């Protein structure tokens, strides 16, 4: 178990393999554990770096307001701690939001950017937006995390043959610290950097499940705003694509990374 401290918070991280550094960052209520089906294959080719964001997994859960920019600062501190230089980055859901934040604030940190089932903004603009987020906000505060976990697992892994995944994810979700989970949930609402993503110039891949929470059309719209970005849609998948379609996900990612530049374009200026 490896740990480092940033701004008074002890953060858990893991490293595997050798080669160019490749960061995998989890989503809300998740942790490094949820990349278990990527580690063996990706570590054979890259130096994998996994981080439990503050409030998640085995990292500390300080009693404070969390923010996407703050999560990005934790990741940047880890990259400095490990002296990685520019990295390939893969972020799922909330982890993808952190990736967008890092890309627009510190483009020199990235060799490439892969966003999985995420978005560059979560804005409450319409009456329906407000209603949907108010409902989720209320349920997150009223229901026990075990109940939330069972409901999410059933939605993410509905097939009979996914019973093992359902049980595993429900159990992992129940271990979340509720106060930290709610603070992370609040960090997402009304966050956004969409107006800045047109400045991203590093190789960018957007991965969308065909049955994600948000439609493929949303990803098509913001992919078009990023110069040179491309969209890959993975069939028969829901929000947790790295878990429900690990082979297709891994191959899609590896093909993209293999085509990305192997050296920085100038001094730390790959993105």
From TrEMBL:
Superkingdom as given in the UniProt entry: Bacteria
UniProt keywords, alphabetically: Hydrolase
> Listed GO cellular component terms?
membrane
Query: What InterPro entries does the record point to?
Result: AB_hydrolase_1 (IPR000073), AB_hydrolase_fold (IPR029058), AB_hydrolase_sf (IPR050266)
GO MF, one term, reads: hydrolase activity
Q: Which PANTHER family match?
A: AB HYDROLASE SUPERFAMILY PROTEIN YCLE, MONOACYLGLYCEROL LIPASE
Q: What is this protein called?
A: Alpha/beta fold hydrolase
Q: Which organism is it from?
A: Pseudomonas bharatica CSV86
């Amino acid at each position: 178990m490896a740990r480092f401290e940033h701004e008074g918070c002890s953060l858990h991280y893991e490293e595997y393999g050798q080669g160019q550094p490749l960061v995998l960052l989890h989503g809300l209520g998740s942790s490094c554990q949820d990349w278990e089906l990527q580690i063996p294959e990706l570590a054979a080719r890259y130096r994998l770096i996994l981080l439990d964001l503050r409030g998640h997994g085995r990292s500390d859960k300080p009693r404070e307001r969390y923010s996407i920019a703050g999560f990005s600062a934790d990741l940047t501190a880890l990259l400095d701690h490990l002296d990685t230089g520019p990295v390939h980055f893969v972020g799922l859901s909330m982890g993808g939001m952190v990736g967008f934040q890092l890309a627009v604030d510190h483009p020199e940190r990235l060799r490439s950017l892969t966003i999985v089932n995420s978005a560059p903004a979560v804005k409450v603009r319409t009456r329906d937006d407000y209603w949907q987020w108010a409902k989720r906000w209320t349920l997150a505060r009223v229901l026990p995390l075990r109940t939330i976990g069972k409901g999410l697992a059933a939605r993410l892994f509905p097939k009979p043959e996914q019973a093992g995944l359902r049980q595993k994810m429900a159990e992992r979700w129940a271990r979340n610290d509720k106060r930290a989970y709610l603070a992370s949930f609040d960090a997402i609402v009304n966050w956004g950097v969409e107006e800045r993503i047109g400045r991203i110039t590093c190789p960018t891949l957007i991965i969308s499940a065909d049955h994600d929470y948000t439609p493929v059309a949303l990803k098509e719209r913001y992919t078009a705003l990023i110069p040179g970005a491309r969209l890959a849609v993975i069939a028969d998948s829901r929000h947790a694509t790295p878990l429900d379609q690990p082979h297709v996900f891994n191959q899609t990612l590896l093909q993209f990374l293999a085509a990305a530049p192997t050296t920085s374009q100038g001094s730390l200026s790959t993105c």
